Amino acid sequence: MAYKSLLTVVTDPGTVNAPLTQMIALAEARDAHAEALCLGVDRTQTGYYYAGANAMVLQETLARAQKEAGETLEVVKDRLSKSGVRWSAEDGVAQIADLGRHVAHRARFSDLVILGRPYGKDRGAEAEPIVEAALFEGHAPVLIVPDKGEPVTNPKTVMVAWNESVEAMAAIRKSLPFLTAADLVRIVVIDPPQHGPERSDPGGMLSQLLARHGVNCEIDVLSKTMTRVSDILNRHATDTESDMIVMGAYGHSRFREAILGGATRNMLEQAKVPVLMAH
Questions:
Q1: pLDDT for 104-135, tens place per residue?
Q2: Rounded CA gap, 249 and 233, in Å?
Q3: DSSP character string of the chain
Q4: What is the pLDDT of residues 207-230, one digit of tens each?
């Protein structure tokens, strides 16, 4: 597998810099096509006010979303046209309740979806559903990039969070283009189970699998010395100077409940490097 189709979804000109910079750099390094979907989002919940609204109010919200999409598209086209990579970009309008359908459709036909952090200053309510749709409905690997920092094209050291889950394995398989090019992949296991197939050799079978792909691996077995697993992973990523973190988007079927509402949200908030997730 190679990353040849890259996608980013943007809804605000003020937040396009980090994902666009990462996508352009990766497209250049991997000879890939960069695609941007610029959405104007109608953030109103029409079910609450539709009966009492007139056509003028509805048209106003639509016009506002169209204007936002057009402004975002112009910023994106300006950046991509100067990049030298193969690219395409288009705009569209979606209601926030129907956002997932549009994002998922594009994500299904992409090798990698590159998005900015789905929360923080100037982040709209649509940022979380976009990540959710790409992961759970689009079944695509998602690379979440921090607001600041250099783009990652060929990370030298990659940290893999391994807990024997299906989601973690999905993320590892979909990150193989990065893993095979890395100088070192650190398989991190926190408090391995005392019972189970890997109790005597935590991470051993995964290391064997990756080694057959030519990946140079080391296994780091850590104790849970902090309350949140995310804090341990982020601290270890800093200590080992890892350039990227790979982890499964594990939990329940809802992204807000399983990811952004739990430990993984803290993981993404604190990570100073891109985090590749899959489900």
A1: 999 999 999 999 998 777 777 888 889 989 99
A2: 14
A3: ----EEEEEES-GGG-HHHHHHHHHHHHHHT-EEEEEEEEEE-S-HHHHGGG--HHHHHHHHHHHHHHHHHHHHHHHHHHHTT-SEEEEEEEEEEGGGHHHHHHHHHHT-SEEEEE-SSSTT--TTHHHHHHIIIIIS---EEEE-SSS---SS-SEEEEE--S-HHHHHHHHHTHHHHHH-SEEEEEEES--SSSTTSSSTTHHHHHHHHTTT--EEEEEE---SS-HHHHHHHHHHHTT-SEEEEE--SSS-HIIIIITSHHHHHHHH-SS-EEEE-
A4: 999 999 999 999 999 998 888 888
The pLDDT score that the predictor gives to residue 183 is: 98
Task: Tell me the whole-structure pTM to 2 decimals.
Answer: 0.90
Band of the pLDDT at 91, cuts 50, 70, 90? very high
Within the chain, all domains assigned CATH 3.40.50.620 are found at: 5-145, 157-278
Distance between CA atoms of 103 and 236, rounded to whole angstroms?
A: 33
Name the nearest CA neighbour of 142 among 260, 234, 237, 41: 260
183's tokens: 């100088």
Q: What is the pLDDT of residue 57?
A: 60
The CATH topology of domain 157-278 is Rossmann fold (3.40.50)
Q: Nearest Cα to 218, choosing from 172, 184, 250, 192? A: 184
Q: Which two tokens stand for residue 52?
A: 């009492």
Per-residue tokens: 248: 């499964």
Superfamily of domain 5-145: HUPs (3.40.50.620)
pLDDT confidence tier of residue 1, bands split at 50, 70 and 90: confident
Instruction: Give the phi and the psi of residue 234 in degrees, each rounded to 5.
Output: -65, -40
